[in-house]
Amino acid sequence: MSVIGNHRVSITTDTWTSIQNVNYMVVTAHFMDNEWNLHKRIINFTKITSHKGIDIGKTLCACLNAWGIENLFSITVDNASANDGVVVYVGNRMNNFNNLLLDGKYLHLRCACHILNLIVKDGLKELLSSIEGIRNCVKYIHSSPSRLDSFRDHALEMRMDEMANVPMDVVTRWNSTYKMLDCAFKYKMVFNRMTTENVAFQAYFQEIDKDGMKRVGPPSNEDWEKSISFVHFLKKFYDTTLKLSATKMVTSNIIFHELVSLQVEIELKMSDPRDPVLRRVASSMKKKFDKYWGSFESVNKMIFVALVLDPRFKLQMLKISFQNLKAEENKIDEVVREVRTCLFNLYNECRGADGLVSQPMNEGEDENVGNDLEGYDDVQTKMFHQLVQQKKEEQLVEISNEVDKYLTDPFESPFTKGFKLLNWWKGNESRYPILSKIAKDIFAIPSSTVASKNAFSLGKMIVDHFRSSLTPKMVEALVCTSDWLRADEFCYYKEPTDEELAFYKELEALEANVAGTQTSTTLPPRFDSTSSLPTI
Predict the structure, then answer these.
(1) CATH class entry, domain 9-111+449-487
(2) Report for 270-284, 303-317, 374-388, 465-479: range of highest mean pLDDT
(3) Given the DSSP bridges, would you call strands 23-32 and 9-17 parallel, antiparallel or unpaired?
(4) pTM of the model
(5) 371-387: pLDDT as tens digits
(6) Where are the domains of the chain?
(7) Of 195, 212, 382, 395, which sits with the fewest C-beta atoms within 10 Å of its C-beta?
(8) In the 3-class helix/strand/coil scheme, how is 237-303 assigned residue by residue?
(9) Residue by residue, what is the 3-state secondary structure of 49-75?
C-alpha cells in the first residue's frame, strides 16, 4: 500500500450492518500514480459504534491518520443526512493542518448514482400498478418448475426460445426492475396467451392475499404500453448509471455531460402531449432532479472543472451545455466566469504549494539589448527599454499562466475514436506541469460510492451464516487483503523479466540443495550403496 505515497487522495465511504448486527464502515481510496494509472484500494473496513455523523467522522480521521494520508481532495458519499456531518467534521480537522485545497470548499461530492436512484424511484411511483401486474406474471413462472415449463411450452408454440425466462427483480433496486421489464416485453405475447388459455395462470390472479385483496394483474394492453414507454425512457438512466458506477476508469469528466443529457431528456418528455402518463412521470422526476442538480450553486464546481480539463471540450462545451438547457446568456457568462476563477484558484494554490515561480529572462539578453541601443538618443533608448520590458512581462504571463495557455491551445477532436484522456495528459505533462497535477487530482475523483458498496458484497461473502463468529479485526483483514490481491490482475502468459528469471534460478538452486541434504541424511551412518548388508 506504499503506492499511495504522497499522492492526493479522493475517498468514498459508507456504512453496513452485518448479520452479526455489527456496524462496519468502509473507506475506499482513489488516486493517480506518477504514471497516470488510476488506483482504487479499500484501506479500511472497521467496526463503528454508531451511525452518527460525528462518530463516523472520528473513525474516518483515525483511518486517514493510520495510513498517513495528509492530502485529501474529495469525499464522495450518498445523501444520508449523517454524511453531511461527516464531511464537515473531517474538513475541519484536515483544515487545522492546512492540507485541503481551497480550504476544503469543494470537499463534499454527492454520489451521482444514488441521486439517479432517487430520481427514478419517484418516476416508478407513477406506474406502480402497471409494473406490479407484470411483476406478478414473472413471480408466477418462478413459483414452481412446472409453471416455468408451462411458460416455455407456450413460448415454443409462439416460435420463441425453448429456454425462455424472465429474471425476477429486487423491488428496492430500480435497475433490476428495468431489466425485468425489458426482458418481459419480449414475451408479452406469451403472457397474453397464458391469460386466455392457461387456467392455472388465470386462477393465480384470483387468489386472495392476507389483506383480503386480489393480486394485481394480469396486465392489460394499456399496462404494457405504459411500461414499454417508461422502459424506453428509463434506458438513458440505466446507461448513465453503468457509466458513472465504473471504478477503474475516469468518470469525473463525464458527470456534467450525463446530467445535461438527462435533464434535456426529462424536459422533452414533460413537453410531449402524446403521452400524458409519461408526462406525469417526467414531472415527478424533474422535481427530484432539481432538488439536487437544478441549481448551479448546489453542484460541486469540480464537476465543471473536470469537463474543462478534458482537451476535447474545455470552456466552450460548458457554454453549449447551458445553452441546451436554455439558460440566459448572462447566467451562462456568470457560470463560465466562476468555473474559470475556480480553475485559476486551484492553479495558484498548487503553484504556491510546490514553490514554483516564473523564470525571468536571463541577464545575457539584457546586456545584449543594452549594447544594441548604443548610438540612440535618450528618448529612443527609453522607448526601447519600455518595449523590452513589456515583452518580458508578456512572456512572464505566458510562462506562468498555464490555464490561459491550455484554454487557448487547439482542441482535440471530440470525434477521435479511442481517445485516451489520461494518455493525453501524460504526454502533455511537460507543457502544463502545474495544471497536470490538478488534472491528476480531478480525474481521480469517483462519481459514485459504488466502490465502497461493492466492499459490502464482499463482506457478505465473508461474514455468512457459517462464519458469523469472525471478529471485526479478522473481517477487516480478509476484506482488505482480498481487495488488494484483486487490484492487479495476474497474467499467466506474461514473459518473465531478467530479475524474475534470476529469482527463479535461485529458488531452483535452493530447492536442489535442500533435496540433496535430505537424501544424504536419510542414509544410516557408515552405510553406502557399495557396502554389504549386515547379516543377522
Answers:
(1) alpha beta
(2) 303-317
(3) antiparallel
(4) 0.76
(5) 454 554 556 566 656 66
(6) 9-111+449-487, 121-233, 246-353, 359-414
(7) 212
(8) HHHHHHHHCCCCCCCCCCHHHHHHHHHHHHHHHHCCCCCHHHHHHHHHHHHHHHHHHCCHHHCCCHH
(9) CCCCHHHHHHHHHHHHHHCCCCCEEEE
